[in-house]
């Protein structure tokens, strides 16, 4: 067996299952889950229609590079969303969802034979983080270095906490903006700092942007800044050592479709295509046709944002009356602090007792982070995914409030 597999930690949801294995939820309440970030809004009918209409294409092998029509639809969306003109043939690559691509990218760019004096090449990522970053780095033969989130800066990652000696051995930096689980969006000045570090040390930046279309403000500057957009604003038109990854899962409520694309540095994209050709990662023809329909339509995305905006407007004040929580920059998560008077401030105990007494599932924040610089920045917090319907999310919030008040007496 691959010895690197022993370095992998259980996935957060497996840890949650272990935590609650002996819990019998209060039968007086119907189950409500805020634990998993799986969109529950209905999949638009036109996407399902496009998927079924393309089933006659199953008799042919799909090309790893994707059909020209899909790459062109992706490029057209990038132009509308970010004002960028990308070459569909060399700067865009369809993938089976951003998760698959985030993992495969590390296998493409990491050279495990380098930096032996430092214990191997480094992969830097935010903390808390999406656990695929860690697993991808470890299985590529790299070591993971974490940049803790800073509550004083709306939970933005503190990249300045990474020593220069680590940056010198870094081969890949994972960025997530809007962030999971904090919802923090990186401003242009922060991107500029990371681009300068990448130019100095030659590492690749992978910008995970799967939550980019779920935001709450309105107006011309409401949409979160993207990595390639930031590079263009700063005069880097070739996107050297930079790729961004996006997905239809959250944008279009199709997590089961497994469809997204990667865009950026043409040199990196060429190497990534080579890797994925051997990995057997071509997107199925029916999925490609449905994806073309999804990327070409924006009306359903606007409606999707409206539903999330309504939920956050109703749920956030309820929870803010009893715990430290605020509207995020973007995404569909609330990153809430467990009150010290409830379960001793323990995120694990909070999640377990809330499920037992009020049948609401949330995810302990410590499961989404690692101890770094002496602390686990997720400890004492819980992640709540507002993915269910409006009424269900409001009901869950009222139950959480009742639970906190009952525990605080």
Automatic annotation (TrEMBL):
Which terms are listed as keywords in the entry? Aminotransferase, Transferase
Give the top-rank taxon of the lineage listed in the UniProt record for this protein.
Answer: Bacteria
Residues covered by the Aminotransferase class I/classII large domain:
32-398
| GO BP terms | lysine biosynthetic process via diaminopimelate
- Gene3D superfamilies in the record: Aspartate Aminotransferase, domain 1, Type I PLP-dependent aspartate aminotransferase-like (Major domain)
One Pfam family from the record: Aminotran_1_2
Q: Does the keyword Repressor apply?
A: no
Name the cofactor(s) required for activity, per the record. Answer: pyridoxal 5'-phosphate
From the Swiss-Prot or TrEMBL record, what is one GO molecular function term? succinyldiaminopimelate transaminase activity
Protein name (database record): Succinyldiaminopimelate transaminase
């Amino acid at each position: 067996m691959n010895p690197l597999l022993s370095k992998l930690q259980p996935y957060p949801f497996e840890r949650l299952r272990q935590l609650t294995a002996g819990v019998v939820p209060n039968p007086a309440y119907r189950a409500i889950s805020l634990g998993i970030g799986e969109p529950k809004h209905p999949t638009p009918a036109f996407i399902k229609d496009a998927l079924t209409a393309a089933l006659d294409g199953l008799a042919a092998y799909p090309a790893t590079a994707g059909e020209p029509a899909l790459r062109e639809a992706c490029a057209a969306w990038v132009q509308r969303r970010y004002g960028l003109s990308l070459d569909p043939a060399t700067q865009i690559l369809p993938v089976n969802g951003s998760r698959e691509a985030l993992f495969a990218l590390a296998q493409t760019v990491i050279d495990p034979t380098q930096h032996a004096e430092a214990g191997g090449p480094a992969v830097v990522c935010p903390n808390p983080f999406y656990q695929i970053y860690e697993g991808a780095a470890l299985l590529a033969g790299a070591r993971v270095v974490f940049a803790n989130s800073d509550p004083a800066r709306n939970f933005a990652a503190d990249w300045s906490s990474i020593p220069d000696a680590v940056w010198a051995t870094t081969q890949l930096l994972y960025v997530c903006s809007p962030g999971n689980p904090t919802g923090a969006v990186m401003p242009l000045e922060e991107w500029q700092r990371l681009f300068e570090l990448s130019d100095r040390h030659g590492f690749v930046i992978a910008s995970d942007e799967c939550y980019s279309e779920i935001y709450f403000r309105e107006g011309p500057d409401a949409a979160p800044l993207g990595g390639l957009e930031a590079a263009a604003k700063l005069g880097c038109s070739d996107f050297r050592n930079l790729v961004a990854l996006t997905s239809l899962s959250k944008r279009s409520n199709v997590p089961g479709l497994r469809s997204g694309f990667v865009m950026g540095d043409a040199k990196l994209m060429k190497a990534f295509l080579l890797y994925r050709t051997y990995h057997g990662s071509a997107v199925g023809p029916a999925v490609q046709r449905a994806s073309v329909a999804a990327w070409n339509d924006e009306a359903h995305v606007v409606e999707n944002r409206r539903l999330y905006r309504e939920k956050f407007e109703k749920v956030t004040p309820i929870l803010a009356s009893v715990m430290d929580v605020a509207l995020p920059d973007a995404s569909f998560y609330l990153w809430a602090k467990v009150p010290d008077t409830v379960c001793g401030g323990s995120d694990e105990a909070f999640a377990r007792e809330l499920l037992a007494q009020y049948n609401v599932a949330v995810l302990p924040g410590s499961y989404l982070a690692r101890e770094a610089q002496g602390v686990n920045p997720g400890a004492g917090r819980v992640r709540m995914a507002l993915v269910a319907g409006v009424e269900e999310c409001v009901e869950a919030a009222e139950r959480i409030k009742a639970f906190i008040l009952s525990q605080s007496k």
